[in-house]
Amino acid sequence: MSTGVVDLSDADEVPVLIVGGSLVGLSTALFLAHHGVPSLSVERHSGTAIHPRAGHFQLRTLELLRSVGLEEIVRRTSEESYFPNGGISAMESVRTGEIAVYVGDLNDGVQEFSPSRRLFVAQDALEPILRERAMQLGATVRYGAEVGAVQQTQDGVSAEIRDRATGAVRTVRARYLVAADGWRSPIREQLGIGMHGYGKLSRSATIYFRADCAELLEGTNLGVIYVFNPKLRGFFRFERSGRAGFLAVNTLGDPREPGALDVTQDLTPDRARELVRTAIGVPDMPVTVDDVAHWEATADVADRYQVGRIFLAGDAVHALPPNGGFGGNTGMQDAHNLAWKLAMAVRGVAGEALLATYDAERRPIGRAMIEQAYTRYARRVTPEVAGDDLPDLIDDLWIEIGYRYRSAAVISEGDDDGSLIQDPHALAGRPGSRAPHVELRRDGRTTSTIDLFGRHFAMLAGTDGARWAAAAAEASERLGVPIDAHVLGGEFESAYGVSPAGAALVRPDGFVAFRSRDAVDDPAATLERALGSVLAG
């Protein structure tokens, strides 16, 4: 693992070049650095985000931040501005009160599944935290520059980088390139990758404002307030003080009316101020509009996540409406899935085919996320035009930790029913699923099996699993891949569906790669075959 800054700002060759230095680009740099792989991120803007976008962070995302030592600082940052367990409700206006409750308590029922908790945190507050940690671990982030023409060969990728201030252009060669360059992704366009799904839903606007709504919000702990009235449809997110926030407007009232789906047309500052007052429900409320951002609500997923040595992540491969908070979370989870695979390939201990499992695993998830974001948008914002073919609404917890990967990096047990998303209770350590949380007591403190994952493969064995631990040491030496072995027993056995003599091999990203429900004659050979298969892809 890297222990200091490796400045790649002027390097001609880098292990991984990341196009984009926003939420997903920084996450990719961070997770690569966590695995000891330096990278160069190139961001066209002059710094991190200036607006509080992507505010709802899921349980799984907090587990990822936990794995790189950032969970507590992110939680403290969240609590400075937002309620810890904020709910999600709908109102005709803030003044008139609730007409529907979508989520009463953001963390209701999650305690048995994870040591982490969901939260709201502004993207402009989160990105500097990600950047600082990534750079501490050896990543380089360059602002005010953009990547132009990209060419790849059998053994690398060449990219032109232009300084936006001086116009100077230089060529950087990387072993791999990750495009986290947003929903308009120039890299995706260069590669000719199409996007398909539900298409453009509306021309929306986000209005950043200041207005004293503290009295109207007194006694509530709402994180998101949907507004549904004859003049507009959208949602608020207020800061904890109740005196500032933003209003995202998706329609001007009934979406069937002409022009209702184009909020941005003729949206002057005065008009934006009136929309905020209408949504608050106080016609003479003093409102200061700080900024207005125009954007398109879209629900599409890319046809491919990889072309050769170029990988795409985040909005570059899935454009989602913000309903449900899936965009930023899905992008960060893309980065996490890809980072350990790139690290293995950079070190030369994995076959190139392992990298192909990124598309195989994450693209089905991206498709599922656009369906879930779309159905929430349609049900909560535009029910009048929603068709009978709306996807079923799947429980948030199932979506966050109940999905399964199917690829060559997962050893199937042959009894898979093909379900992509399931009740987490039913997964019970099946290969391809997120390794379950089991509370552990160690050295007088309480931890979790979740804390055993993050950098290396982990071999978790039942009470009588000493032979599996020895097998892990042997396989690790032969294959040159670190494996952390733990003999746990007890609740672990039922949670992971193994006997006292069984074991589970968990990947660095915290997903079960292989499971032996019971003892085998030669655990060392069995484990070596399984690990070799996973690494070769």
Describe the model.
The protein is an alpha+beta fold. The chain has three domains: 13-83 and 120-196 and 299-397, FAD/NAD(P)-binding domain (3-Layer(bba) Sandwich), CATH 3.50.50.60; 199-298, 2-Layer Sandwich (D-Amino Acid Oxidase, Chain A, domain 2); 404-536, 3-Layer(aba) Sandwich (Glutaredoxin), CATH 3.40.30. It has helices spanning 23-34, 59-67, 71-81, 123-136, 186-191, 214-217, 269-280, 326-347, 352-380, 396-401, 424-427, 466-479, 491-496, 523-536; strands at 13-19, 39-43, 56-57, 87-91, 98-103, 119-120, 140-143, 145-153, 156-163, 169-179, 195-210, 222-228, 233-238, 244-251, 288-302, 306-307, 310-312, 318-319, 439-442, 445-448, 457-461, 483-487, 503-506, 512-516. The strands form five sheets. Strands 1, 2, 7, 8, 9, 10, 16 and 17 form an eight-stranded mixed sheet that branches. Helix 1 runs parallel beside helix 4 (123-136), helix 1 packs parallel to helix 8 and helix 8 packs antiparallel against helix 9 (352-380). The longest helix is centred in the last third of the chain and has 29 residues, at 352-380.
